[in-house]
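Subject: design request, 419 residues
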């Protein structure tokens, strides 16, 4: 038995098995100038950090990918076999194998636009000084828009890759963000950006490829509106300065399709100290046929589990996303590998579970305090945003009316009879 185990482990090597896996799932962040603390491009890189790699892989900490259900594009999640491969390689002493068979490390061209020169480049109005230490920072930067058109793709380039943890991009036609920023062009903004967005371009996190909107769709830009970059900074241990930018690829032609945000949300959050399983739910019945292309979950620190699912008219249940270990520091905007067709009459639902006990290591309050809905770090939220495209665009107004009705019911507003 011992001999058989040794033979099995020795068959695992870096050159032919581990290197392709590390390059595909880890290198985008584990490379010079990125947010990860060390590179994983070569055998020497991996060998020198083998104990750390084995530890975080065994505990499912790395690669950071929280969704455990859902067929998403760009998934960094390891399969059971991939996880076993890395752990077996570590147990075997990290054998290299034949260096001649090693794939070349992936090449990342710093400062170059992967989709070619953008039509418009928007840069933070001021450089932002990130301190060497302390708590994470959430900062909004307001950039006036002087262009019109539709964004079919975009690419974000963080100015300080060591400190920019993730970024979200909104448009604001109300001028609220501009007033909050005043002459500085920036303001502090944890959780939500502090205004009702006119639109959204999505978000970026390390390892995220340039975003290309689903075929036939694009996001509208209007002159006089503002682009608001909400950036999460994680201090790196030394003072840094960031001036990030985003490149936009535009078309002047209105897109034939439109992505609609079906928002499942709840403000019914009032969690007593010590409550380790507080639940909130929401639902919506979709009145028309849609193709779901993405899903965006959002909560703060003490959320632990979140599930979104669809119940089709025939009674069949389909999971849209499931996260068993939510971590605010690893938020993702998930896009499906293939659109999910949901027929008219489908009921979409969410359930979020919160742990406000002292046993929750992510609880920001020690001892635990009562937590209610709100935008601050010690408050909570519950939102699951389903990104859907009507199959027949002429039915878009019907979906809009149903969503408006949902909002009015949530606010306790009066909805006039249509009879």
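Subject: RE: design request

Done. Sequence follows.
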């Amino acid at each position: 038995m011992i001999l058989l185990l040794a033979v099995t482990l020795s068959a695992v090597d870096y050159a032919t098995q581990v290197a392709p896996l590390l390059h595909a799932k880890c290198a985008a962040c584990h490379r010079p100038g990125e947010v990860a603390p060390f590179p994983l491009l070569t055998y020497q890189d991996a060998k020198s950090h083998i104990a750390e790699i084995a530890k975080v892989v065994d505990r499912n900490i790395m690669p950071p990918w929280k969704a455990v259900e859902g067929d998403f594009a760009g998934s960094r999640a390891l399969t059971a076999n991939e996880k076993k491969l890395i752990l077996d390689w570590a147990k075997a002493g990290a054998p290299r194998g034949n260096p001649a068979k090693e794939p070349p490390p992936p090449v990342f061209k710093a400062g170059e636009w992967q989709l070619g020169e953008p039509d418009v480049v928007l840069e933070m109005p001021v450089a932002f000084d990130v301190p060497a230490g302390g708590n994470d920072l959430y900062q909004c930067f307001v950039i006036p828009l002087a262009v019109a058109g539709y964004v079919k793709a975009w690419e974000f380039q963080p100015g300080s890759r060591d400190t920019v943890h993730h970024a979200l991009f909104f448009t604001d036609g109300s001028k609220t963000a501009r007033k909050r920023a005043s002459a500085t062009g920036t303001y502090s903004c944890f959780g939500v950006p502090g205004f009702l967005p006119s639109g959204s371009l999505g978000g970026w996190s390390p390892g995220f490829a340039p975003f290309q909107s689903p075929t036939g769709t694009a996001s509208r830009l209007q002159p006089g509106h503002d682009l608001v970059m909400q950036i999460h900074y994680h201090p790196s241990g030394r003072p840094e300065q960031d001036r990030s930018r985003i490149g936009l690829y535009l078309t002047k032609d209105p897109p034939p399709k439109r992505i609609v945000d079906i928002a499942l949300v709840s403000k019914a959050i009032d969690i007593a100290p010590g409550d380790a399983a507080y639940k909130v739910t929401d639902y919506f019945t979709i009145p028309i046929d849609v193709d779901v292309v993405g899903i965006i979950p959002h909560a703060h620190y003490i959320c632990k589990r979140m599930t979104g699912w669809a119940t089709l008219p025939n009674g069949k249940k389909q999971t849209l996303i499931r996260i068993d270990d939510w971590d605010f520091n690893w938020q993702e905007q998930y896009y499906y590998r293939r659109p999910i067709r949901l027929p008219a009459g489908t009921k979409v639902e969410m359930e979020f579970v919160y742990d406000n006990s002292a046993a929750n290591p992510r609880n920001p309050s020690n001892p635990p305090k009562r937590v209610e809905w709100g935008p601050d770090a010690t408050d909570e939220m519950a939102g699951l945003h389903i990104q859907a495209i009507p199959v027949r665009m002429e039915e878009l107004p019907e979906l809009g009316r149903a969503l408006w009705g949902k909002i009015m019911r949530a606010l306790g507003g009066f909805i006039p009879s249509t009879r």
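The chain has seven helices and 23 strands.
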